[in-house]
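User: I've been trying to design a sequence by hand for this structure and keep getting stuck. Would you show me what you'd pick, starting by listing the structure so we're on the same page?

Assistant: Good idea, let's start from the same input. This is the structure you sent:
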C-alpha cells in the first residue's frame, strides 16, 4: 500500500518559495510543488492567477476572522486539501465552498 505514496516523483514534495503581492506588500510563501499546482488549478477555475487567488483567500479569511492569518502557508495547504476532498465527492469546490466552516465531505464509516 505505501508503494502508492513512496513512488511519488520527488519534485511534487519539494518546496518552492513564491512571492505574492497582498495589498501592495510582497510576502513570500513556501509550499510543496503539489500544493502550488493545486492552487493554480483552483485559481484557473476562479478565473484568476495564483497570486490573485491567494490574495482573495487572504482577504476573505481576514474579513471572516477579523485578523490576518497567523500561518498563511498552512491555511493554503488546508484550502488545497478541502478543494481536493470536495472534488472527490463531486461537489463544485469554488472559493465560497472551500472557506465554508461547516465543510465535512468525508462520511465516517463509509
Amino acid at each position: 500500500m505505501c508503494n502508492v505514496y513512496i513512488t511519488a516523483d520527488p519534485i511534487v514534495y519539494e518546496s518552492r518559495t513564491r512571492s505574492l503581492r497582498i495589498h501592495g506588500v510582497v510576502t513570500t510563501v513556501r509550499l510543496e510543488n503539489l500544493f502550488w499546482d493545486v492552487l493554480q488549478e483552483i485559481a484557473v477555475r476562479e478565473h484568476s492567477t495564483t497570486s490573485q487567488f491567494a490574495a482573495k483567500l487572504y482577504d476573505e479569511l481576514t474579513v471572516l476572522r477579523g485578523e490576518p492569518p497567523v500561518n498563511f502557508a498552512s491555511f493554503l495547504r488546508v484550502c488545497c486539501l478541502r478543494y481536493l476532498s470536495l472534488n472527490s465527492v463531486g461537489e463544485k469546490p469554488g472559493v465560497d465552498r472551500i472557506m465554508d466552516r461547516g465543510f465535512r465531505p468525508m462520511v465516517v464509516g463509509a
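That's my pick for every position. To get oriented when you compare it with your attempt: The chain has a mean pLDDT of 84. The domain at 8-85 is CATH 1.10.3990.20 (Ribbon-helix-helix fold).
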